Structures are given as structure tokens and as C-alpha cells.
Amino acid sequence: MSTPNPQLDRPNPPLDREAKRRLAVIRHVEEVTGNVAQTCRYFGISRQAYYIWYRRYQAEGIEGLRTRSKRPRTSPNATHVEVVGKIIYLRQHYHFGPEKIAMYLKRYHDMTISKSGVWRILKRLDMGRLPASQRYKRHDKRWKRYEKQLPGHRVQIDVKFIEPLAGATTGRRGGRNKYYQFTAIDDCTRLRVLRIYPQLNQKTAIQFLDYVLQRLPFQVEVIQTDNGAEFQSAFHWHVLDKGISHTYIKPRTPRLLWLRQPIKPISPQTGSPSCARCESSAARSPGRRIIPPKHLERATADALEEILERPNPTRRMRTYPRVVKRQRHNSFRVKKTTDNGVRHQGKPEAYVFSPVA
Questions:
Q1: Are 39 and 19 in contact (CB under 8 A)?
Q2: What is the Cα–Cα distance from 153 to 220, expressed in whole angstroms?
Q3: Backbone dihedral region of 131: left (phi > 0), alpha (psi from -120 to 50 degrees) or beta?
Q4: pTM of the prediction?
Q5: What is the pLDDT of residues 72-97, one digit of tens each?
Q6: Which of 169, 179, 185 is nearest to 272 (CA)?
Q7: Among 15, 85, 159, 177, fewest CB within 10 Å belongs to which?
Q8: Got the DSSP string for 225-251?
Q9: Residue 214 CA to its chain's centroid (Å)
């Protein structure tokens, strides 16, 4: 007994419009006129085209009347498969456009291809348009992060839910216990204070605020939070009682907070994030270092001293004559080119005037 072939048993797709027209021409000759020339004149086709369709119909049946691909059998000038693979890789991983892909292949792989050729390949592979999250944005339209000049000018506070590990103990209702990590970051020094609480309410938010004010070595002027329920009236008035301003971010704009980042799971035994992996990644990453708790105050003082001693940026020298408008009439006069802003480069001087006795 022969095994069934799924490809042969699969039903054929319906005929397209052109195949139905060719079948109608052949049946018109067989059933209506019986004359090929008269049928061809009636349908407005040549007899050569009719006999091509008729030979295919005799050899393959109705399937021979389907529209066939007009692609050439050999394409000696087609783009190499290796080049197409690199184009796909650069598009998927780096989101480059056609012009940048062509430049990258020419510079680093010595492969010459035009940007229009890259565009045609991307369009053929349905990769011609990137998602909205991956498209290029101008610098003036990108998100601007908060960055203040003085320590304590603005401190951001946010809370994130931490999922315990799989082997954690069960809670009162059979599920795993929930933990909430409160985080505070200073916009100038980037000092971060973290603490984990088993509950999320205004009481824990107030406790965390007192802990932050105790740990930070400078005075806080403004506290910035989102519009969560844990930062409402009781928390707001507690901040004002401390002599600190409290501001909310614009609703539905979590990007305005630095703290919107994924948090690692915590261990049910210690109640804190796993430190081995974090310390190793922080040690490998440039510009970051781990400060022991006993040296934290000294390191903070050194960072503040470095920030406060930063000189003000020098004024750019004027390379063109300065135009000054006169008061009495609308004519303009050009000042001498010797005014190069030299008076702004010296150190500021303070004068103290004593009252005349």
C-alpha cells in the first residue's frame, strides 16, 4: 500500500484571473466556433499565443494555464548572498538606513553597492520601514534628562516592584511575598539611596524620605516624584514640613524619571539584590566604581569638592565687528574690532562700600 503524499493530496489553489481567461479562450474554440482564427479575432489575441496556451493545457492540464514567473533563469549581476546577509544584519541590529549601510560595507568590508540597491533589497525583504521605536530622531526632539549644577537641587524618588526568586517562601494567601524598592537619585552627583519595604503606601514613602535626608551629605531643595498613590497628600505635606519643595512630573510621562529601569530579583533569605553579579558588572563597566560604606562619606565629600570647584565656561571670542544701535536715530555704527571680550576673562572682583560717617 502506497503512503499518501501530502504535496499531491493538497488541494490546488483557485485559478487567477488570467488563467480563467485562457481557459475560456480554449473552451470557446472547442465548444462555440471550432475555428482558432475566428476565436483569436473575437478575443483580440494572436494565434501564436493561443497555441502556446493550448500546448501547456494538453501537457499539464488546467495548472499549465497559470501565470508563470518572468524572472530570468540566471542573473549574473545579482547581489551576492553574503552582501545581502550583511545588509540584513546591519538593518536588524543597528537600524542603519540605505546610505549608511552602503557606506559601512564600503569602509569596513570593501563591498561596493549603491544606496538605491540597498533600498531595493530592503524593500524586497519587507524591511524598508523601521518601527517607530527604532527610527532616527533629531537631537532637539529626543528626551532630555534632568541634570542640575548643584548637589541637592533636585532629588528624584521612585518605587519599583521586585519579584522574589522562585524558591521564596509563600505568603499568607499562598503566593510569594511582595517587596517594593524605593530609590532616590540626586540629579547632580548621581548619588543613589535604596531601601526595600514589604508594603507600598504613604507611610513607607515618608519613612524612606526621612532615611534619604539622613543619608545624603547635602541639603535637599526639591523632591520630584511621579503621581503614584504613595506620593500623595500625606507625603506631600510631610515634604513641605521639612522645608523642601515637592514637584510632580507630567502625567503619563515616566521617561522624565531617571529611575525607570528594570530591577533584579531579590533573595528571600537576605531581602536584598544579589551582589556578586552586580559588583562584577560594575567593576567591568568604565566610569563606575564600588565604594565601601565606611569610605562613602569621604568619597562624597571629594565628589562635591570637585563639582563646586569646576570653573565657569570661558566666553567665546567674537570674530566679527559688533553692531550697536544708536539712541537718537535709526542708523547703525560698527564698533572697533578690538572689543574681543577680554574684560570677561578675568576673575570677578567684589567691592565693599562702607557708609559715610
A1: no
A2: 6
A3: beta
A4: 0.40
A5: 888 888 899 999 999 999 999 999 99
A6: 179
A7: 85
A8: E-S-GGGSHHHHHHHHHTT-EEEEPPT
A9: 36
